[in-house]
Amino acid sequence: MIVEHYGDPYSAITQTLGQLSCQNIDPLKRVGIINWWWLNNDESMLDNLKSFVERQDICFFLSEEIFGKFSNIDINDVFTLLNKYNVYYILFSEDNTLSVKPLDSKSFYSPWFYKSPLFVPSTFRPDIIYREKPYVFNLMLGSKKSYRTLSFKYLKDNNKIYSSYLGHPQFKNDSSTFLDDEDIQHNLINQNVEVEKLNTMNQVKRENQQCTISHVIPERIYTNTHFDIVTETFVKNDHNFLTEKTAKPLATGRFFCWYASRALTSYLGRYGFDFTNYPADYDNISNDVDRFDSFLSVVEEITSSQSLLEDIYEKTMQSRRHNMSVYWKGRKKIYNNLYSWMLECIQT
Known about the structure:
Blueprint: E1 2-6, H1 12-20, E2 30-35, H2 41-44, H3 46-54, E3 58-63, H4 75-82, E4 87-91, E5 94-95, E6 107-109, E7 135-143, H5 146-155, E8 161-167, H6 182-189, E9 203-206, E10 209-212, H7 219-224, E11 225-231, E12 239-240, H8 244-252, E13 256-259, H9 264-269, H10 288-303, H11 306-315, H12 317-347
Parallel strand pairs: 1-2, 2-3, 3-4, 4-6, 7-8, 7-11, 11-13
Antiparallel strand pairs: 5-12, 9-10
């Protein structure tokens, strides 16, 4: 098998192909990998894509994040071109607004967060049943976005919420940090966010391994807060792209409220997650502003009612246990499933 990369060759897909090379595959078969997110402008041009694909017997189009990286390229035209060839798709987001989509029969879909490992401290124990804690929610905001700024302005003075916004040049100084891991807090607070976007991809050491800051479960914060407030990285209706922000409460058995693209529950439901008895009617509101307002109202209502807080623990217990199990099974199997799928595609 002869592998040719188009774009950055260093990814987990490269490692998967390394395993495939040990299988009974024609050694002269040409396999192309198009790493869409890491192409440069010239590589993204249709003529150049066409030239690359035509040199291969089979291609895999890998989109690590959302499709719309290039403002001068219509992704519909890209898929119109690629669907004419022996191209398969490895996709970690969905765009349901497209007029031309990757062929379902030739696509491997997965939530983005499955391919990006979380670090959970060995001492961490999930709080499945209610116990007293000083805070109802944590609101941990990273890079500056308009809806995060509005969330922080609205919620920062609620004494039932442990809140920080280290990615905002003004509000970083109004943030609570006393429960944060000291090395993480020091790394983030010292970044000059007036000049550059907050970088939460920096590394810290945990239990003899290097971990990405944004992927570390904040044990002290979780010990002192009941629930999470999640504001996702990318919010656009009919787009599904969910990061470690959503994965953290799923992986640790925590209830959470979220502002994300519409119908998060339906999207994750396709992968086996369950949100029965979650007070999340806002999730299906189409209008972004109305959905945002409703989400904030639910957060405020929960912080104002001890009985509702305890009721959420009781009513969502089964779903939270279930979601923990689904997350860790999915995380464990992601690359084995991808390996098997790619092998079948190549051998077909």
